[in-house]
Amino acid sequence: MRRPHWPRRVFAQLLLSQTVVTVGVTAVTAGLFLAPVSRELDHDAKQRALSIAQSTAADEAIALAAAGQDAVAAQRDAEQIRLATGASFVVITDLDGIRLSHTDPSKIGFRVSTDPEPALRGESVTAIQQGTLGRTARGKVPLRLADGRIVGEVSVGISDVSIRRRLLSMVAGILLCAGAGLAAGLLATLVLARRLKRRTHNIAIADISALLVEREAMLHGIREGMVALDRRGRVRLANDEAVRLLALPEDCTGRMIDELLPPGRLAEVLTGRIEGIDLPAVRDDRVLVVNRMATEHDGAVITLRDRTELESLVRELDTTRSLTEALRAQDHEHANRMHTLLGLLELGLHRQAAEFISEQSGSHAAVAARIAEQVQDPHVAALLAGKAAVAAERGVRLEITADSHLPDAAVDPRALVTVLGNLVDNALDVLSGGVRSDGVVSVGLRVCGDALLIEVADSGPGVPAELRERIFEEGWTDKTAPAHRPRGLGLAMVRRLVERSGGQVTVDQGPLGGARFSVELPEALHAAVIA
Q1: Where would I find the Histidine kinase domain in this sequence (predicted)?
Q2: Residue 416: helix, strand or coil by DSSP?
Q3: What is the extent of the structural domain holding 267?
Q4: Residue 98 counted as domain residue
Q5: Which end of the chain is more exposed for a tag (fewer CB within 10 A), N or C?
Q6: Residue 448: helix, strand or coil by DSSP?
Q7: Helix (H) or strand (E) holding 29
């Protein structure tokens, strides 16, 4: 024989368990209600028997019959009272407890089956007792003459059958009320179970546990950040990658996202105040791509992709592409120089050919040597040398100010290269494209204690005063974004890096007529090395 299986679905388990509970509670409640009702009926029966007994004892003729042991008169009067009141029996005894009346005349002349002594001592007694007529509710009182002398007792009984009959007459109403309550409970259980069925998509209990384990493994195993927000913007969950990318505290769950992130574009994107697909944002020195999807209950699920390394690779690719273009142009220029040199030699102008070779070979070496002399940090020197070649190819002259000096003492060369590279790239982008044939980008590096002062100026159109704060916002740009990466992140990243180190970056009009970006980086250099 197969054992019945417990339902696997959530709603079915709820329906079955709630039905069992509702039926059980209803049954217990009905039982608890019937128990005091039964006791109350017993009490009423005993009080009714006592009242009949007291009324009977108040009849002086019955007392005289008991005193004279007149069984005939006592039987006649007792039966009249029994029939009139509906009692099961009315028994009159003498002082010895001998019956003078009884429902069964054959029992007259015999001692009563229950103890008559309390009533014969003058006490009134009520009790549920078992006698010759079965279980009855009894009331016993002393029988007195007019002078107060006790001459016997009066015992009146109400049959237990009549009490049970009254109880059964009430059970129907009680069960009707219990049935109505049970039906209401079952209906509520059914509605709740159907709603739960929709909310749980009729999923099985075992599947819920498996889905929970799989979700936790998926959330904390994927390399993308995921954040779930409720309708009020509070964090419901954040996986390990999201905590790392957003620098969230461990107790971020349940807190508002605006409390966890500084004001700015990232918070605006996460809360949905800025909408779009693949929105770029910056958190410290990280470039993030954010997507936000609304959920059914006005919440949101946010995915975060770290594009920091990709952004660095794209910038390196841009630099490589620029250098490739510069090398291609230099290849043509080199061919022209070779043709010129060949012509000088064929014409026999050997002195002019030697001077031409010296002039051409020394120009580029001189630029690199000048940069290396003023900038001793190898990372920054290599950056400026590469940018100088790119600038030359774009028809822009990149120069280092005469008072520039940077020792090989940078605390964080990577951050320094990021800041300076973005500022120089921004200036080259403004000047390239033939806007001006004599475009100049000026770079100044000065040391003040253990702080580094950076100035990048250009001869472009400059930045209007009303835009000098807005250009540092994430995603803002006045340039057309290339297909391979978004614009509007470079200056935002510069500001984040500078402010994170306790410095500041400002923009104004420079000596070359265009924009001048001034950066102060405190504690950017190792003081011991400088000293």
Answers
A1: 391-525
A2: helix
A3: 222-306
A4: yes
A5: N
A6: strand
A7: helix 10-57
The strand pair at 286-294 and 300-306 is best described as: antiparallel
Distance CA 238, CA 223 (A): 13
- Boundary (domain end) residue, out of 306, 333, 350: 306
- 15 with 148, same domain? yes
396 and 487 in a common domain:
yes
Task: Show which of 260, 276, 306 is a domain's final residue.
Answer: 306
H-only helix segments in 375-504: 378-393, 413-431, 490-500
Domain-embedded: residue 175: no
Burial class of residue 315 (count of CB atoms within 10 Å of its CB; 0-12, 13-18, 19+): middle
148 and 20 belong to one structural domain:
yes
- Of 356, 25, 341, 64, give the one whose Cα is nearest residue 182: 25
Domain count, the chain: 3
CATH for 250:
3.30.450.20
- pLDDT tens for the chain, 531 residues long, are 445 554 556 556 666 777 777 777 777 776 666 667 667 777 788 888 888 888 888 888 888 888 888 888 888 988 888 888 888 888 898 888 888 888 888 888 888 888 888 888 888 888 877 777 677 888 899 988 888 888 899 998 887 776 666 666 666 666 777 777 777 877 877 777 677 666 666 665 556 666 666 666 666 667 788 888 988 889 888 888 888 888 888 888 888 888 888 887 788 888 888 887 877 777 776 778 888 888 877 788 888 888 766 666 655 665 566 556 656 656 666 677 777 777 877 777 777 777 767 666 555 566 667 888 888 888 888 888 878 877 877 778 888 998 888 888 777 787 788 888 889 888 888 887 544 557 899 999 998 877 889 999 998 888 888 888 888 776 566 555 454 444 556 788 788 778 877 788 899 998 888 899 999 988 778 765 555
Distance between CA atoms of residues 487 and 467, nearest Å: 16
Same domain, 18 and 162: yes
